[in-house]
């Protein structure tokens, strides 16, 4: 009996518990040290949750019924406000729990991608100490919920690349149903699941069954909200901000970053357009954006490339207002962390033994999530849900360089072991 092998998983979970504890401590420190009052999208999510709790239905402070994604206010803020009242501290503590789940999922995704003990624990540790992960926990924003959902979806894709599991397909469908409600940009990761199914050695009939299961489960979760919107605003949509965001990213005044609609050619007529209804306003703005892109194909393509560059621009920018010495130090440390992680992740491309289908799935997740933002516009916090993937890739590269061990998917190792026994 090999007691060492049996003890190793227990040591892993002990170390993981310590890492999660460190992550909690940093997030708690951010809540204590960072004084922040909700603004912008946060106010919309808060009003949606409070209106639901108070029996007024889901409607934001501007009177919109489906302008913003419903997932975060519905599943996080509304239950918190129902139990504790309009308590922002309670909501931020729940964000902390989501952060803990994300740390654990970094470990699990790294493990599924073939990382050894060092790599998977390092992947978890990176997200535990990555400063924006702590700071953004103070914000009542959907990115806190999106990060674990994105990681869960990628874990399912990695598992589906090696075995046709109906249970995993159910979980994957559930995660994408939640992502559809929480953050539409993450639906771009459907491409990752598609690649996983292409790589799966199962028969075409089995893979088709998995697709049907995933689609059905996702529809069960997101369908009721779409039916509600059909009844309330006249269209079975997930939200009505698609055309709005597309226009902000594609118009004569677009820069690639967020610009107020007041600064665009639609500014003078925006209030009148809003009165035509959410669906009509979104459709009008969408058509405006498409018309501009068709009329200016070169500018559209150039702007898309600028958005990709902005999306991965190191955080050398300054915050709003006068900054304390502590905030300046944190921003410098954040920039160092970001540049180091991205450089280490890119190092994966130079390591031959890391060129496998698991790593390809991770990179495709990064590419898909970047690509969808090239169509709209960029805000730096939008990249936070995909940053755990960068941390995982960085951990895999560092582990490979340190240990010089060839990485094999865990499932492959198991199959090899079973084959040997036969």
UniProtKB/TrEMBL annotation:
<feature type="transmembrane region" description="Helical">
    <location>
        <begin position="360"/>
        <end position="380"/>
    </location>
</feature>
<keyword id="KW-0808">Transferase</keyword>
<keyword id="KW-1003">Cell membrane</keyword>
<dbReference type="InterPro" id="IPR050297">
    <property type="entry name" value="LipidA_mod_glycosyltrf_83"/>
</dbReference>
<feature type="transmembrane region" description="Helical">
    <location>
        <begin position="386"/>
        <end position="402"/>
    </location>
</feature>
<keyword id="KW-0812">Transmembrane</keyword>
<feature type="transmembrane region" description="Helical">
    <location>
        <begin position="168"/>
        <end position="198"/>
    </location>
</feature>
<keyword id="KW-0328">Glycosyltransferase</keyword>
<feature type="transmembrane region" description="Helical">
    <location>
        <begin position="66"/>
        <end position="84"/>
    </location>
</feature>
<feature type="transmembrane region" description="Helical">
    <location>
        <begin position="43"/>
        <end position="59"/>
    </location>
</feature>
<feature type="transmembrane region" description="Helical">
    <location>
        <begin position="121"/>
        <end position="141"/>
    </location>
</feature>
<feature type="transmembrane region" description="Helical">
    <location>
        <begin position="12"/>
        <end position="31"/>
    </location>
</feature>
<feature type="transmembrane region" description="Helical">
    <location>
        <begin position="90"/>
        <end position="109"/>
    </location>
</feature>
<feature type="transmembrane region" description="Helical">
    <location>
        <begin position="210"/>
        <end position="227"/>
    </location>
</feature>
<protein>
    <recommendedName>
        <fullName>Dolichyl-phosphate-mannose-protein mannosyltransferase</fullName>
    </recommendedName>
</protein>
<keyword id="KW-1133">Transmembrane helix</keyword>
<keyword id="KW-0472">Membrane</keyword>
<feature type="transmembrane region" description="Helical">
    <location>
        <begin position="332"/>
        <end position="351"/>
    </location>
</feature>
């Amino acid at each position: 009996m090999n007691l060492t092998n049996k003890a190793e998983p227990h040591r892993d979970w002990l170390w993981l518990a310590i890492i999660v504890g460190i992550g909690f401590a940093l997030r708690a420190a951010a809540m204590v040290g960072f004084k922040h009052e909700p603004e912008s999208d946060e106010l919309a999510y808060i009003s949606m949750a409070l209106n639901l709790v108070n029996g007024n239905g889901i409607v934001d402070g501007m009177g919109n019924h489906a302008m913003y994604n419903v997932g975060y206010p519905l599943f996080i803020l509304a239950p918190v406000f129902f139990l504790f009242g309009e308590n922002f501290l309670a909501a931020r503590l729940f964000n902390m729990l989501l952060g803990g789940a994300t740390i654990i999922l970094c470990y699990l995704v790294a493990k599924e991608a073939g990382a050894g003990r060092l790599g998977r624990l390092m992947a978890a540790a990176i997200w535990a100490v990555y400063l924006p992960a702590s700071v953004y926990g103070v914000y009542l924003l959907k990115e806190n919920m999106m990060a674990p959902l994105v990681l869960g979806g990628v874990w399912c894709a990695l598992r589906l690349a090696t075995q046709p599991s109906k249970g995993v397909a159910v979980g994957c469908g559930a995660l994408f149903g939640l992502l559809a409600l929480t953050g539409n940009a993450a639906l771009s990761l459907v491409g990752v699941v598609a690649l996983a199914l292409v790589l799966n050695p199962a028969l075409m009939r089995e893979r088709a069954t998995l697709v049907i299961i995933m689609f059905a489960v996702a529809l069960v979760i997101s369908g009721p909200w779409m039916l509600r919107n059909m009844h309330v605003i006249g269209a079975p949509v997930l939200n009505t901000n698609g055309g709005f965001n597309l226009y902000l990213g594609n118009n004569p005044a677009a820069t690639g970053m967020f610009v107020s609609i007041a600064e665009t050619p639609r500014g003078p007529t925006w209030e009148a357009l809003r009165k035509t209804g959410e669906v009509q306003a979104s459709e009008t703005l969408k058509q405006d954006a498409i018309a501009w892109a068709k009329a200016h194909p070169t500018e559209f393509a150039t702007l898309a490339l600028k958005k990709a560059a902005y999306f991965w621009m190191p955080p050398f920018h300054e915050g709003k207002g006068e900054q304390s010495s502590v905030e300046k130090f944190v921003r410098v440390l954040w920039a160092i962390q970001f540049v180091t992680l991205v450089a280490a992740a890119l190092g994966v491309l130079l390591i031959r033994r890391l060129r496998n289908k698991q790593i390809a799935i991770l990179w495709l997740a990064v590419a898909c999530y970047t690509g969808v933002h090239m169509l709209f516009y960029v805000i730096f916090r939008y990249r936070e849900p995909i940053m755990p993937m960068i941390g995982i890739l960085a951990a895999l590269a560092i582990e490979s360089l340190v240990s010089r061990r060839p990485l094999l998917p865990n499932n492959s190792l198991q199959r090899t072991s079973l084959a040997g026994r036969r």
